[in-house]
Amino acid sequence: MKLSPAGWLYNAGVVGLLRIISWGEDDENLPRKILRNGLEPHNLERFSLYYWAYAARHFLYHEISPSLWNILTKLLTPGKGRDEEGRAKTSQLIGELRASVLKVKIPQRSEDMEKDYRRFVGEIEFQFENWYANILMPSVEAIEEKPRNWEKNLEKIRGILESYVDGIMTFQYQSNALGRYYFNKSVVNNPKKAFNRLEKFHKEFVEPAIGVLESGTSSHGEEFYTCTFCGRSYPLDKKWMNHIVFTEGDFAPIGVSYDKFQNFFYNGEAPLKCPVCQLILLSSYAGFNRKPFILQDLEGTDHIFINLPDLSDAFRINEQFGTLLRDLSEGIIHERDNLYYAGIRIILTSLKKKSQWVLNNVLFVEFKPTPEKRTNKPSFVYFNIDRGAAQVFKELGDGDGKRLENLLKSLNWTYEWHNQRIYLSTEVLKRLLERKSLKPLIFAYFKDFVNGRHGNIAGLWTMVLFEHLFNQARRALQRGKKEVKVMDIYRRLWALRKAGENAFSLSEIDRDKRRRLAQRFITLIRGGRKEEFYTELLRLYLVYKKENLAGEIFSLLSEDEHLTFQEKALAWLTGFVSPASGEVQEDRMENTSDKQEVAR
Question: Which long-range contacts (CB under 8 A, 24 or more apart) does 473-481 make?
Fold first, then answer.
C-alpha cells in the first residue's frame, strides 16, 4: 500500500509510524524503502511490540526529568548557598540518565513478542541500575557535607525508578502517557491494567491492518465505505464497524465526537478510516516533536509538527527538526534558537532545488494536547508560510544564510510586553506569519529603548526591516507581480538607517539628547503626522548646519509608492539613536548585530 499525504494529523501519523518501525527494526533506511515501495504486511508483523516499547522509551526520555528534578537537586546540593552547584550537577546526571534511555533497543528478536518485550523492560531496568550504582552513588559519596535526609532521598529515587519499571512492564505507564493523545481509546488508553495490552493491541488494530495490506480489503461483505485518509474503498466488516468513524479518541485535543458534536464535521459527516489509517493515526504521538521545557513554559504549547506536501520531505525534515530540539533540550546547543526559523533553515538547506515551492506549502502546527478539557483547554496554533513570506526567507537566507541568522539573533531574548513575558524572536515570527502588524510591538519596544529599559537596538532594526519586507512582498503578489526584489528594498532601508547613523556625530548630539529627540520623533511617526515629522527633521538639520543633505534624506522626505512614511522614518530613526562611532566597516550591512549588546 503506497502511503500518500493527507492532513497534518495523518502526515504526523505516517512520520510516527515510520519512526516506530525504523527503531524497532534498527534500520534507518527502512522509512525510505517503505515510502518508495509502499507499506507491506511484514512491516507490521511485530508492530505491537515496537509500538509499546517505543512509547516506553519515548515518554521516559521526555518525562523522567520533571519527576526526578526536585528530589535529585535536594540530594546533590552540598549545603546552603550552593544551590547553583546542586542544580548543575542535577542537570548533568539527568542528562546522562536520559541518554541511557535513548540507547535502549529491543535486545533480541524472537517469534515470541511477549518474551522480547520482557527482555526490553529488563534492559531498561539494567540501565537504571547502572545509572544508580555507577553515576548517582559516586556523585553522592563525593559530597563531603551530606545534605539532610540524603539516605531517605536516595531510597525515594530508587523507588521512583522501580515504579517506572513496574509501570512499563504492566503497560500502565505508556497507557497513562498516551491518554493525552487518545482519550479513552480502547486498549491504548484504557485505565485498567489487568489485561495483556500487547496481545489485545495486535488483535484489535494490527491484525486488521495486515489483513487490508494482504487482501486490499478489510474483510468480506456487501456494504462498502471509502476511507477519507487513503481514499480506498473497503467492504464493511461488522467487526470493524465501531472503528471506522473518526472520533475524539483518535486525537483527544480535537475535542469532537460524532455522537455528540456532529456539527463539527462537514455536512454532519465524520471522516471514515480503514484499519491501516487507524493504525497510522494511533502513531501520531511519535511523529510530534516535543519542545524544550523552557520554551513550553514561555509559549504555553509543548509540541510542534512541520507539515509538508510530500511525505518523504515531511519525514526527513521532522527527523532533523526533532534532533535539533533534542540537542537544544540536552544543552548540546546552548544558544536558544527561533524554532520556526530553525525549521525553515532546515528546509532551505535540505531541499534547495524546491525550497521556495515547499516553503509556500509548509504548515507549522503547534499545540498542547490534554484529555481533560474540563480542567485544561487544548492549545492549537497554526502557521502557514505564504508565498510572500517564503520569498523573504529564501532571499535573506541565500548564500551562507548568515544575514537572516544575524537578524534573528538580535531577537533572541525575552521581553516584557502587555504584562507578559514573551520570547521576542518567536513572537515576531508568529505575528508575521499570522499577517499581524509588528508596529504595536515596535513602538512599545522603541519607547522602552529610549527610556533606558533595554539596550538592544539591533532587535528594533530587525523588526522594522521584517515588517516592511514581508508587507512589500505580499503587496507585490496582490498587484499581480510574480516577485518583488527583496534585497533592493533591504538596501534602501539600510541606506536610510545608515543616513541616520552618520547624520550627526556624538560630539554634536550626545546619546541622552538623541533619546529625548527620539521620543518626540516616535510620537509623530506613530501618529502618522508626516508633515510635522518632516518639519522637525529639517529644523534639526538647519540648527546643526547640515546644508548638504544626503540623497537618502531626500528619499526620506519624498513620496514613495513602495516605501511608506512610517517604515522609512523608523529606519532613519533606528540609525539616529545608534550613531556610528569611528570608521564604519564595509561588512556592517551583512552583520547588523555584531557590535550590539543583545540581552539573553
Answer: 473/387, 473/388, 473/389, 473/391, 473/392, 474/386, 474/388, 474/389, 474/435, 476/388, 477/387, 477/388
Which neighbouring-strand residues pair with 144? none
Residues ≥6 apart with Cβ < 8 Å to 42? none
Secondary structure in 3-state letters for 363-414: EEEEEECCCCCCCCCCEEEEEECCHHHHHHHHHHCCCCCHHHHHHHHCCCCE
Per-residue pLDDT tens for 92-133? Answer: 899 899 999 998 998 877 888 999 999 999 999 999 999 999
Whether the CA torsion 359, 361, 362, 364 is positive or negative: it is positive
Which triple of cell numbers denotes residue 232?
480506498
Residue 386, judged by CB atoms within 10 A of its CB (0-12, 13-18, 19+), counts as middle
Cα–chain center distance at 390: 18
For all residues of the chain together, what is the average pLDDT? 81
Whether the pTM exceeds 0.85: the reply is: no
- CB contact at 8 A, 417 and 430: no
User: Closest Cα to residue 496, out of 446, 441, 560, 445?
Assistant: 560
Which of 97-106, 156-165, 291-300 comes out lowest in average pLDDT?
291-300
| Spatial contact of 460 and 574, defined as CB atoms under 8 Å apart | yes
